Amino acid sequence: MHSKAARLRMALTLTVLACGAPARAQDVPPATSPAPEPAPQESAAGPQVQTLEEVHALPPEEEALDLYRFKNPVQVESGGPIGGRFSEPPSPKQISEGGGYVMYGINKAIGAAAKGLQKIPGVRDQVQSAVARPPPELTEEQRQRLLRACGAQGDACAAAMPVP
Fold first, then answer.
1. Coil/strand/helix, residue 42
2. Reduced to 3 states, what is the DSSP secondary structure of residue 43?
3. Does the pTM of the predicted model rise above 0.70?
4. How far apart are CA 113 and CA 109, in angstroms?
5. Tens place of pLDDT per residue across the chain (164 aa)
6. Which residues contact 95 (CB under 8 A, 6 or more apart)?
7. Cα dihedral: 42, 47, 48, 49 (round 10)
C-alpha cells in the first residue's frame, strides 16, 4: 500500500527517534534503587527461618437465594377461552428483519392456505409417523439351504436361524 519513498521516510523517522531517545535518557540522573534486604543471619545451628503470624480461616459467606436457579416443577396448563391459539405478535423489529409488513402478510396468507389444505379429505399431514415393516421371512427352500450350510457348525448356526 505504501510507496517505497514513504516506507523509507518512516524508517528514517523511527531511526532518528530511536537514536535520540538514549541521549535524553542519559541527561536524567539515575533513580535510586531501594537498599537490598539484609541476608538472614545464620546461627551455629543453621539459618533462621522467618515465621508468619497466626492466620484465621473464616467460613464462606452464604450465597444469595436465587429464585430462578431451578426450573419450576409445577406445569401450568394453558387453558381458558384462548387456550394454545394465542401467540404474542411480532415486534416491528422482528417484522423488519423478516422482510417487512408485505412479506409478513404474504407468509400469513400462505400459512392460512396451508391450514385450509389440511382440511381437504385425503391430504396427508406434512409430518408422518413412521411405520415399521415386518421382519423378512425365509421361504422353505431358503431354510433348507441354510440348514445344509449350517450342518458343520451345528447348534450355534441353528440358533441364529429365524423361526417362522
1. strand
2. strand
3. no
4. 6
5. 457 777 777 777 777 666 655 444 455 555 555 555 555 555 566 678 888 888 888 888 887 777 777 777 777 776 666 666 677 888 999 999 989 999 999 999 999 998 888 888 887 777 778 888 888 888 899 888 888 888 767 666 666 666 55
6. 101, 104
7. 150
